[in-house]
Design a protein that fits this description.
Shape: elongated
Strand order of the largest sheet: 2-1-3-4-5-11
Helix content: 40-55%
CATH architecture of the largest domain: 3-Layer(aba) Sandwich
Distance between the termini: 55 Å
Strand content: 5-15%
Radius of gyration: 25 Å
CATH class of the largest domain: Alpha Beta
Order of helices and strands: HHHHEHEHEHEEHEHEHEHEEHEE
Number of strands: 12
Largest sheet: 6 strands, parallel
CATH superfamily of the largest domain: Response regulator
């Protein structure tokens, strides 16, 4: 606050009155103070008095997730809470719904409340707006998607490797006319999964022109409609790779509505409750979001304690679970095929 006062050429009490919305401050002075605060990235600490009494700790962290009602996000949340509960730290969770503006608003609110640290999933391709917090030493860890243009720890799944495994599995079962069904390509995880899908097609010598590349699909209903349209084609795909849990559900709806679930092979990325109870069961690349949440929380605690650590991106393995849908044989199942050497 003293820096804001010096830059605006006013007293500290005047800065306080302006930022608290108190009366008896001229319009010109108020604008000068707000301009100085913006230039310095200063946010009024609404809990400052309480923090002085408590010893400068809130015993709270912020957790920003894509959507708290998404089972994947909920599992990350549980993982974070399971660690923080042992340290009597509460977790304040917010959704940003893949909206870059909402992302910044949530982060700003967390920091305004001076939480002890934040764990973030983001959609913006540049998090340079966090540079000021980095300079202040704020403890920040990214989860599910890595930090971009700022130096913070990240915890992610092996998205590329998981997509490679899914695509290889379908190719090994005789499929060459594959479809990729994914959503927003601003999202790093989906870009990695799409990259793995096409890299494995290339490794097998399957032309990319033979694959359906469907991106930008919005939600379960969008995936359902896209798959219906593909099934209406003269040469529909014989196998589908659904790139995340909402694409999985939409794809399943379409296949079952067309009674094609025993004809079109499918592998989904993300496990969803009850997929093992369908007929056929759904083959998936399963992530471990609970473990991702635990690792992110443990890393944040270390940063909050100022433990000397090298900057790191921690990766959590994925696992291909075979249940039936990914094992439906394709038209090339009887041909001799030599798969490429497996990656180490």
């Amino acid at each position: 606050m003293r820096d804001v006062a010096a830059l605006a050429g006013v007293g500290v009490k005047t800065v306080s009155r302006v930022l608290n919305g108190e009366p008896n401050v001229s319009v010109e002075t108020g604008e000068r103070v707000r301009r100085a605060a913006a230039n310095l990235n200063y946010e009024l600490n609404v809990y400052a008095g309480g923090l002085r009494r408590m010893g400068a700790r809130t015993n709270a962290i912020g957790l920003m997730l894509e959507s708290v009602d998404n089972p994947f996000s909920a599992a990350i949340h549980r993982g974070v809470e399971s660690v923080m509960r042992k340290h009597s730290i509460i977790v304040l969770a917010q959704s940003f719904e893949e909206d870059p503006d909402r992302e910044r608003t949530v982060v700003k609110e967390f920091l305004r409340r001076r939480v002890d640290g934040v764990i973030l999933t983001t959609v913006s391709r540049d998090q340079a707006y966090l540079s000021a917090e980095a300079a202040r030493g704020t403890a920040i860890v990214f989860v599910d998607r890595p930090a971009v243009s700022v130096a913070f720890d990240s915890v992610v799944s092996r998205n590329y490797d998981g997509a490679v495994a899914a695509t290889r599995h379908l190719l090994e079962h005789g499929h060459r006319r594959l479809a990729y069904v994914g959503s927003d390509q601003r999202i790093w995880t989906l870009r990695e999964r799409r990259r793995g899908f096409f890299a494995e097609l290339d490794a097998w010598g399957v032309s990319r022109s033979e694959a359906r590349d469907i991106t930008g699909v919005r939600g379960e209903e969008g995936a359902r409609k896209v798959v219906h349209r593909m099934l209406d084609d003269a040469e529909p795909p014989t196998a589908i790779f659904a790139a995340h849990n909402r694409m999985v559900v939409g794809t399943l709806r379409a296949l079952h509505e067309r009674n094609a679930q025993h004809e079109i092979a499918m592998v989904g990325f993300d496990d969803v409750a009850l997929l093992d109870l369908l007929e056929p069961g759904v083959t998936v690349v399963a992530q471990d979001p609970h473990r991702m949440g635990e690792l992110a929380a443990e890393r944040l605690l270390a940063r909050m304690a100022q433990t000397p650590l090298e900057l790191a991106t921690l990766t959590v393995p994925t696992k291909l679970i075979q249940r039936g849908s990914g094992e439906i044989p394709g038209p090339y199942i009887g041909e001799a095929a030599t798969p490429p050497p497996r990656r180490s």
